[in-house]
Amino acid sequence: MELKINQQTKQFNAESLSIQALLDLEIPNKQNGIAVAINNTVIPKPIWNTHILNETDEILIISATQGG
Length: 68
Description:
By secondary structure, this protein is mainly β. It has one helix at about 20-25, and strands at about 1-5, 10, 35-40, 40-45, 60-65.
């Protein structure tokens, strides 16, 4: 499966992935304070396990940062 994540194309050895499965592969230790948008729509965290990604999806993973 080929996915476009944060404007970079990446290849995955899976026929289907949920958002949570993708995050477990991409950022296993940094899942607090992030948001995920699929095709410019923010996906609520409670459905990350059930939302299945398609190869045509554009995925944006955003991390919260602190600053002043």
